[in-house]
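Sat 14:20. Reprocessing the chain from the morning session after the first attempt stalled halfway. Input below, unchanged.
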Amino acid sequence: MQPHTASGPSPAERLRSIIAAAHSMTVVTDGRFEEVHGLDGDDPLGRIHLHAPGEAHEHATPRIPIRLELTDVAPVPVRERVRARVTLSGLVAAPYRADAGASTCMELGQAVLQDARGRWYVTLDQLQEAAVDPLAVGEAPMLHHLVADHPELVPLLLRLVEPAARQGLVRALPLAMDRYGITLRLERRTGHQDVRLPFPTPMAEADQAGLQLHALLTAARRSSHHRLPA
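Finished this time. Tokens:
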């Protein structure tokens, strides 16, 4: 498993935040696929309670496999917009119904986060201990605002990227933002590269995002001045 560092979220934090911000998910039980839409901030874990194996149905009726599938998609139109996929698998007492009044108890067998860098397995304890990123729900409008209303800021942030990474650049767009930093996708004629710019300190609240971005932009302006010939 990838170690947790101060420059980025742990796999458990990412997985928990993707679940919390999900607009939809696919639920597979008993061979039936059910698309659940319109979550929009209604955390799926409020509808489906995760339990340790053997905890949810001690006096069990026969249980059936269940799989929850969620896709994390970049809010802005970068190449290859799927940032990560989350799969939760386990057992339930009856096929899932999105229109059911009561929540569903699910014995969690496995939680998996997969992205372009690899695959990570998250335990139930890690998932329950992980905090939802304060920007998880508000990330999309923030990145849309950055691209639509302040397009001049992304080239400025590029000054913090190593010159070698900027060679052959066709386009740069913000791919993601969380409490630890912002990630830019650098697109070239063939392929792309993601570069992470960490904030000076991780933010505790979403309303600190403006200050953290301002700090990065100030550092970018200073960086360009430092490169000027004497």
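The first strand starts at residue 25 and ends at 29.
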